[in-house]
Amino acid sequence: MNALNITIIDKAVDYIFMGTKGASSLRNTFMGSNKVRVIKQLDACPIVTVPADYDYDLPDEIAFANDFKPTFIAPELVPLINFTQLWNSTLLVVHIRSEKTLSNDQKLNKELLKNALKEVKIRFLEVQMEVSISSTLYRLEKEN
Question: Where are the domains of the chain?
Fold first, then answer.
């Protein structure tokens, strides 16, 4: 077990908040190498990434990028639900479309997700994939 996991357990950490390097890095890379390393090593705690230029006000919306391929189980969504309710935010479920239509499994997973998130204000948004997921999310962030 690595030092980060031990610290999370010893200190009863509920969440880890990590900053990003800012918009320029988001355009090129979805996540930096440090974040990827932490995610790969972390077993015991959800990670929330925060843009460097964030104004530290409660967010009106929380983006949750999703391709509807995984089937989420309720405990996996608890942190997302908790933050959305705590901050009275709207959860923006963003599907970055790279295929023309959703498969039957994706449609089912989208409905299951909708039901699992019924406790929060939710809005679904379909956007067309650009060059990469990173550039698409960057454009979406700049538009909102």
Answer: 1-53, 57-144
In CATH, the architecture of 57-144 is 3-Layer(aba) Sandwich (3.40)
Radius of gyration of the chain (CA): 16
Distance CA 83, CA 62 (A): 9
CA angle 16, 21, 26 (to 5 degrees): 100
Per-residue exposure over 121-133, b if at least 16 CB sit within 10 Å of its own CB, e if not: eeeeeeeeeeeee
Within a 10 A sphere around the Cβ of 138, how many other Cβ atoms? 19
Q: From residue 71, give the alpha-carbon distance in Å to each of 13, 39, 99.
A: 26, 20, 19
Mean pLDDT of the chain, nearest integer: 82
Q: Which tens digit of pLDDT belongs to each residue from 100-126?
A: 899 999 999 999 999 999 999 999 999
